[in-house]
Design brief:
367 residues; alpha+beta; 3 helices; 16 strands
Length: 367
Amino acid sequence: MAKFTTRSVIASAALIASVWLLVQLQPSPASAQTSNCDGPCPPPSDCDGNCEGGGGSEGEGSRAPPVVTGAASSVGSINDLGKQRFNQMITHRVLGTVLLGVNEQINCSDCVSAFGSAGSFSAGIHGRKELTPNLSLLAGIAYTQFSEGGYSVTSAPIGAFALRYDFTDWGSSRPFFDIGTILSPSEKVRYRRSYVTNFGPVTVDGQTSSQNYGAYGRAGWINRISPRDEIAASVEVWQLWQRVGGYSDQAVAFNPFDATIATGTDKTNLVKVGGQWTHLFADNVEGNINGGFVQSFANHSGLVATVTSSDGTIAPTVGNQSWFEYGGRLGLRITQGWVADLFVNGTAGPQPVGNTIHGGVGLRVNY
């Protein structure tokens, strides 16, 4: 019995010694992480190599944001806004001159005309009234919408009136003078600018209101060379003002050069040298063609933009411009005193005025 107990003790001791030896041969967690170090090893870490800022070079975990380029293109888009605003002044004036009878003869009887046009949507009424044998009142009112070169005038009531003094007592060849104004005190307008960055193109709109005013004087000479023909030549001097309310770019997903436009007033002065010819074909078709050369001077842009990521402000300039203006009308005398008109007006020249055309129809009654 004692012999059996001794064997059991010896076997148990041997088993315990084997287990202890195996435990001593297992590497510890710290030694497992640093067992491959050739020199002094760093303290053990619980990271597996994906910890932010650890295990890599300095700053690798907080990279600088990518650089956005396109500042020069953004400045160009602000300059384009200045050109849009200049074009708006000129188009407003062209549409206003229709209310002053630009497509009609210089001397004629009292009349009233209702019209509608396309190219720029416009609808209104205008006419003339003889106050004395030499003095006439020209006046009209219209509602219009037009777009050109990136901007859109979505609502614009326009009014115009002028006085014309015609020296009728001088005979068939004589001078005449006009003085008048065109005004649009409440316009709704949307301007658009586009620029390019290294991440792609950006297009943003800005909506605001504007007010347009113009005053002019005209001196000319009229000649009734026959009962069917009237020709005239004239020189006009204009001054135009346009006040545009301040606004900011619309909110879009990506616009690194966001712009804020301050309230400002644009101004320009114009000289126009032109002429016209009115002729009666057969007994019932009236024809008129007119045109002239226009030169602007002393232009001033009231646009001042503050742009994100740009130093200071941007104030574009618009140099002196020149272009041609043209117009024409065909009128069918449908019955005594009633005339159906087809007319066209436009500009031809380089930007920012460019090539534009506006056409329409009217119904005129002479009395």
